[in-house]
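Our preliminary data section would be incomplete without showing what the modeling component actually yields. Below, a chain of 381 amino acids is followed by its predicted structure, encoded as tokens that our downstream tools consume directly.
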Amino acid sequence: MKPDRPLRVLRVITWLPVGGIERRLVATLPRFDRERFELSLVCIRERGALADELEAAGIRVDCIPFRKRWDPRALRQLTDLMRERRIDIVHSHMYRSNVPATAAARRARTPVVWAQVHNVGTWETRRQVWIDRWLCRWRTGVIAVSEKVRRDVMATLNLPPERVPVVYNGVDLARFAAARPRRPAVRAREQVGEHDVVFLFAARLVEQKRATDLLTAFADLQQQPGGERLRAWIVGDGPLREQLERQAEALPQPAAVRFFGRRTDVEDFYAAADIFVLPSTREGFSNALVEAMATGAAVIATDVGGNAEAVRDGQDGLIVPPLRVDALRDAMARLAGDAALRRRLADAAAARARRFSLEAMVTQLEELYAESYWRAVAPHA
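Predicted structure:
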């Protein structure tokens, strides 16, 4: 059975700042098959910097500001929008959007409602858990970005496996692979020697990303033979930047650490670096990790969230326990001292990253949308 029109899909998100989840929406929504799906998006806080970019790609963006999660006026507006556009599928992101989106979809009698969870431990209070459990009776299911997140969702919301599909984050493989030839030029620009080894951290400078652990391990490596050849690049910004800069200033060779802030050309840094390091204590499924893999960097990541699903330890990179600076240091030393191992793992990582393309993600969502819609409407057809 085929529809006589495209299925109308409404994505609901808090807003569109320049963040990982939001950039992924901008990258993926225009790639959907327009003959099968008509997509639009609603922000429930404000538009954000990426809204214009999304509209330029042909995706309608509306804003219905919620003063609070159960704002009755905004909830009525969101419900009316769903009714007026005859939305077939609602797909919301993260708790603060999942709650009002589900409530409005219930009132609008939208047949398919997907919430999405992007990390483990999303719920901050027991009250949030209770509310989300209650709302799940009106949802088709909850999309998880990794198996680790899926298990967390099932345990927290008491959902069976069939209601929690996994859709891995996808990245633009062509963009990152295309950066590889720029490696010599970027290293020359940043005055990196041919035999220097560059460690790269590219993420928000917040507690859970643990850039502090990277710098602590790096300080130990600087004092070992060959330590003068090591470099550490920190790409990203956040509330811990000043603290991290002070930590770097206290290192044996502080000039070996450079802070680049937030960059739009992060792929060039992936390509120019030798080893990408992600020492997080909490992840759902890291875009940065897959981006680094796609660019051809050797990677080290902690065993949290979906990291070990993207990287198979010893095959595509190295996996270490979180909060174990000694294990992180040893892995960094191992790769810094073995160029052949770096090359082998980097090649394997680039091949592994092909599994996590934007195209694969869009295809999986298209099939999930279509299957869940016809399953919902078939009994009433």
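The two ends are 11 Å apart (CA to CA). Residues 158 and 261 are 41 Å apart (CA to CA). Preliminary results of this kind motivate Aim 1 of the renewal.
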